[in-house]
Amino acid sequence: MRYLLWAVKRELLGNVYRKIGVAYILVLVVSIFVLKISVSASPVDHPINLKNDRNTTSQMQSVQEADSSGETQQSAEKTRTTVANSKNSQSSSTSSGDSPSSEPSNQDSQDNSNDDDSNDSEPSHTPTSQPTTESASAYVAFYADSQSDTDEEDARHQKVVNKILSSGANPIFHGGDVMEDGTQNSLDRFNAVTSTLRATRSFYSVLGNNDRKIGDSSTPSQLFLDNFSFPNNERWYSINTGNLHMVFLDSAFCASCQSQIDWLVSDLQSSASQSRITGVIYHHPSFSSTLSSYLESNGVDFVIQGHEHVYRHTLSGGINYFVMPGGGSLGYALASIYPSKVAITFFNENGGAIDSASFNER
Questions:
Q1: Pick the CATH number of 138-360 from 1.10.730.10, 3.60.21.10, 3.30.70.1020, 3.90.1150.10
Q2: Are 137 and 336 spatial neighbours (Cβ–Cβ below 8 Å)?
Q3: How confident is the model at residue 135 (pLDDT cuts 50, 70, 90)?
């Protein structure tokens, strides 16, 4: 009986202990789980917050640095602007006629400032020179060697004529070889291409070697002479346009004619030539060897020539000699005539500039 009671008691206590153990284990497991959650959650929150705080701080610092940099740049820009304005002011003062100082630039700025203060109380006695601007007295055009007996050559000639027309130049001066071998066909082609130009502009030309009588290279074409109406004997003559005196000579058929040389000397010595810028136009560049002494001694300023079909510009004896581009390289020149100079630019058939020159009255 006693053994039975002990067994029952032992069983009851075992059940209690087992329940207590299970409960303890459950509590322990729950506690560990809660602690794990608490521990794992706690270190995650703080780094994120700290990171955000660092980003915020970094952004604020960047903004402050940007503001500071912006202020520094603005300050530097203001400094550069002040220096630039000071230099511009100094430059303007110098270009207005003030004598530039020999001191360094920083000292110049101070000296100019002091000079301005003194000028307020005392008038300046240094005269200020004002630039003078000349106005052109005439606009003229030159071209040469436009001879044509094909449609292709007519098209090239027409292109140049259109360029001259659009420039507004008047009169127009031609350096010879209006015709090709003296034929009526070539003259008809010339008249067709230049009909508008000759109807709206004054046109003058010299004789070229192709403006000859058919079959006779020593005689000028009567077709040429009848087609135009030029002054004097139509073979050598001169005209005035504004401040330009232009002389036309026959190098093709009368290069050795003393009558032409005598007339030239008389014309160059006239008041019409001596009171103006004087140019001479003839066809053959080789004619210069005969004329150079007369041209140089009588104050000719420039000479226009043709024949070679390739542009050339030389200076000899104080005279500018220009050979016009012609034939397959046809071009033209536009000249502005001023009281004291001539400014001339040479172009190809498409209007591209080849060369330019400016020379004073001799």
A1: 3.60.21.10
A2: no
A3: confident
6-55, pLDDT tens digit by residue? Answer: 665 666 666 656 666 666 677 666 666 655 555 444 443 433 333 344 34
Highest mean pLDDT: which of 5-9, 102-106, 206-210?
206-210
- Per-residue pLDDT at 8: 57
pLDDT band at 339 (very low <50, low <70, confident <90, very high): confident
The pLDDT confidence band at residue 133, using thresholds 50, 70 and 90, is confident
CA angle (85 as vertex; 83, 90 as ends), nearest 5: 95
Which candidate, 248, 169, 163, places its Cα nearest to that of 205?
Answer: 248
Q: How far is CA 91 from the centre of its chain?
A: 25
Q: 308 and 285 in contact (C-beta within 8 Å)?
A: yes
Per-residue pLDDT tens for 112-122? 434 444 444 44
Token pair for residue 277? Answer: 């810028």
Residue 344 CA to residue 202 CA, distance in Å, equals 19
In eight-state DSSP terms, residue 183 is -
Beta bridge partners, 201, equal none
Q: What are the E-state strand segments in 276-340?
A: 277-281, 302-305, 312-316, 319-323, 331-337
The DSSP output letter for 232 is T
Report which DSSP code applies to 170. Answer: B
* C-alpha pair distances (Å), 74 with each of 67, 68, 77, 82: 10, 10, 5, 12
For residue 184, report the phi and psi dihedrals to the nearest 5 degrees.
-65, -35
- Tallying the residues shown for the chain, one arrives at 362
Determine the Cα–Cα distance for residues 58 and 283; give it in Å rounded to an integer: 85
Domain range list for the chain? 2-98, 138-360
> Does the pLDDT of residue 219 top 80, yes or no?
yes
